[in-house]
Specification:
The chain is of the alpha+beta class and 174 residues long. The chain has one domain. Helices cover 34% and strands 20% of the residues. It contains five helices and seven strands. The strands form two sheets. Strands 1-7-2-4-3 form a five-stranded antiparallel sheet. It has a two-stranded antiparallel ribbon with strand order 5-6. 31% of the residues are buried.
Length: 174
Amino acid sequence: MTYDIAALTRMHRACLDGMAKHFKKFFLEISYDTKLPTQVRLQVIRSPSDLSSILAGPGFYCIATTLPISYNRCTLRLGAQQAPVVYRGHSHTVRERIESHLFCDAYKKRDSGRRFTVCMKLDGKNINIDSIDFSKYEWLVATHSMPKSKVLIREAAELGFDAVFERPIGSNRE
């Protein structure tokens, strides 16, 4: 007997779609303006030291900013200034992943054997929120803790998020 890749691919897709429906329901019911569930935290990030309070383990995350963006289909807004979400993603190590997105140059210098080589870009530029170009804007991160989750589950969270809020501009492949 041999294995059937096409059948396994269909099963994988069906599983992913079922989990995405679960996350779609979650995202339809959550309000980032009120008391958040215990597994969700919203934090302002201004400097690398702020990363110490970010979820270190597996999870899903969104990055929002007041930086003017010309076109962004994502409808989710975070914080008092209603900053648009410009990126959503997942990782086994959320803190390190957010560091790679928001402090890209320092992350790449610090970690010569770095795990993450592709980082969020806005208008074709890597982001370094402690630089002159980006420090005048507010940067917020919503983290969703997902202990013991596998990639498939976190990918389903991305699909559920996109179904409710649309894919953010920075999450598009440039």
